[in-house]
Amino acid sequence: MNEHGNGGPVFEIGVVIPRRAVQEKDESCDCACFLVKEFEKVGFIVERVVGIADEFIKLAAPLETFGRAAAELQIKKRTLIGMDLQFEVEEVEAFVKQPDGSVFSWCERFQCYCHLIYGIVNNSKSVKTLKFDGKEIRWEIGEHLLQKLESENIVKQVFPLHDEKKRKKLLRSWALHWWDLTSQPIDEIYSYYGAKIAIYFAFLGMFTRWLLFPAAFGLTLQLIDFGSLRLVVLPAFFIMVILWAIMFSQFWKRKNSALLARWPISSAVGADQGYKILGSRQASSWQPPMELLKVFESDRAKEKEIFQRHEWLGRLMRFRNDAIIIFSIICLQLPFELAYAHLYEVLGSDIIKFGLTAVYLFAIQYITKIGGKVSVKLIMNENNENTEKRADSLIYKVFGLYFMQTYIGIFYHALLHRNFSTLRQVLIQRLLLSEVLENLLENSLPYLKYSYKKYRVRHKKNEKGEVREKFQFTSRVEKEYLKPSYSASIGEELEDGLFDDFLELALQFGMIMMFACAFPPAFAFAAVNNVMEIRTDALKLLAILRRPVPRAAATVGAWLNIFQFLILMSICTNCALLVWLYDEEGKWKIEPGLAAILIMEHVLLLIKFGFSRFVPEEPAWVRANRAKHTTQAQDICYKKLLRSISGGDKTLEEDKKLE
Amino acid sequence: MNEHGNGGPVFEIGVVIPRRAVQEKDESCDCACFLVKEFEKVGFIVERVVGIADEFIKLAAPLETFGRAAAELQIKKRTLIGMDLQFEVEEVEAFVKQPDGSVFSWCERFQCYCHLIYGIVNNSKSVKTLKFDGKEIRWEIGEHLLQKLESENIVKQVFPLHDEKKRKKLLRSWALHWWDLTSQPIDEIYSYYGAKIAIYFAFLGMFTRWLLFPAAFGLTLQLIDFGSLRLVVLPAFFIMVILWAIMFSQFWKRKNSALLARWPISSAVGADQGYKILGSRQASSWQPPMELLKVFESDRAKEKEIFQRHEWLGRLMRFRNDAIIIFSIICLQLPFELAYAHLYEVLGSDIIKFGLTAVYLFAIQYITKIGGKVSVKLIMNENNENTEKRADSLIYKVFGLYFMQTYIGIFYHALLHRNFSTLRQVLIQRLLLSEVLENLLENSLPYLKYSYKKYRVRHKKNEKGEVREKFQFTSRVEKEYLKPSYSASIGEELEDGLFDDFLELALQFGMIMMFACAFPPAFAFAAVNNVMEIRTDALKLLAILRRPVPRAAATVGAWLNIFQFLILMSICTNCALLVWLYDEEGKWKIEPGLAAILIMEHVLLLIKFGFSRFVPEEPAWVRANRAKHTTQAQDICYKKLLRSISGGDKTLEEDKKLE
Question: How far is A308 from chain B (nearest CA, A)?
Answer without folding.
Answer: 12
